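Supplementary notes for students who missed Thursday's class. We covered one full example, reproduced here. Read the sequence, then the structure, then the short commentary at the end.
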Amino acid sequence: MCSIVGSVLGVFVYNHQKLEILFYQSGAVGEVPLGNCVVKCQDWLKRMHTEVPDSAAVLGKILEEFMEVDRPFQIEDQQAGRKKITEVLTRFGLSYHQGGLILGAAHALPTKSLKEALQHRDLAGVDKEFERALANVEKDPPAAITAACSILESLFKIYIQDNGIEMPADQSLKPLWKVASKHLGLDPAAIEDDDVKKVLSGLNSVVDGIGSLRTHTGSAHGRGRHAYRLQARHARLSIHASHTLIGFFIETWDERKRRRDS
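Structure (token representation):
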């Protein structure tokens, strides 16, 4: 993959200075490799597997301009190069999406898994999962809803397991949230401050709404006779709401742990 992508970019971006600026601005590190533009590009791409934490993210940014910005005087070569890159990414179970996003990288490249990110409360790692969900918003809103719901379920299961709490018999989103939020002290009924209580009640509504959307329209369930007109904006709202909830949940979890340890 690095050889083909490097040969395409090395020929297209034939100016050494421009190529080096492109790599550094995209997040590549280390000394500039020797050789012509093709060799330089190939070697740098190969090194990224060990030199940067998320080589897929860097690759996406390196490809972004080439894949999305047309150069009229080079359009035929650019189209042919895009086809080669798309084909080689597909061969390795990857795909390029608008905004410099490489999907499928969690399995094909050495990136942190969602489970690991959640276990270590790594918000940056979790952010990448939401980026993948957002990438599906326009072409498949139900799949994006399913992804957002699955991330929430995964977090709550990990919290319940790590804290030795009895897992609910029904391991869908709402029962998991009920157990985890109560143990973490996010139950509105246990809060005295009315303003905070209102906000926490809103989190309950978010979970309820996302769980219901996944049940009725998400790709994980069959759809009945009534067709829900789920649009991209609904999926985007659900993903952002899930992201906010997870961030607050993880920060609260860490704060409780710091208090307990001190």
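Commentary. Strands lie at 95-97, 101-103. The chain has twelve helices and two strands. If anything here is unclear, bring it to office hours.
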